[in-house]
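[Automated response] Your request has been received and processed.

Submitted sequence:
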Amino acid sequence: MTSPVCGVIRDGVYNGSMTEQSGSLLSSPIVSRLRDIPETIFSRITRLAVENNAINLGQGFPDSDGPRRMLEIASEQILSGNNQYAPGRGVPELRKAISANREQSYGQVFDPDTEVAVTVGATEGIAASILALVEPGSEVVLIEPYYDAYAAAVRLAGGHHVAVPLLPTTDEQGPRAGH
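Generated structure:
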C-alpha cells in the first residue's frame, strides 16, 4: 500500500496525489461531493495580490504584532509550559468571559459550560456548527451575499443549499430576504 506524499490544488480543483512508491498521480481522494467547490475568495484575492504585487485586502492581516505586554505574557506562558492544546470547547475561563460579555453587551444569557464553544476562527465555527446541525439530504437556506465557507460546509455535511438574495426594500421595515 502506498501513502500520499503531496497533492496539488490549482484553481480550487484537486489534481491528484503523488505516492512515495511510484511518483504517479492517483485519482482524487477527495470525496465527489467536494470536488467542484471553487477556490475560496481568500485564496483568490491572495493569489491575485501576489501575482500583481498588490496589498492583500482579502484577509485580516494585522497591522502590527499587537501590544508588547501581550507578546511578553504569551512568551512567558509558553516558556512556563502552558503550551498544550486547549480543551475542545475552549478554556473554561474564556467561555465564562464570553458568556458574561454577551450578557453585558446584548442581554443574552448563555451557559458557558453547555452553550459556548471557542474556535480558532469563523470558518471553523461555521463548519463545526453546520456539521453538527445539518443531516445528509437537508436543505439549507443561505441569505445572499454569504461567506463562501457556508456553502462548502453544507455540502461537506451532505446537504444542499438554496441561495436567497437579500433585497432592499422601500418601506420602513428594513432589508428583507426574497426573490
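Summary generated for your ticket: The chain is about 35% helix and 15% strand. Confidence is low (pLDDT under 50) at residues 1-8, 14-26.
If you did not submit this request, please reply to this message.
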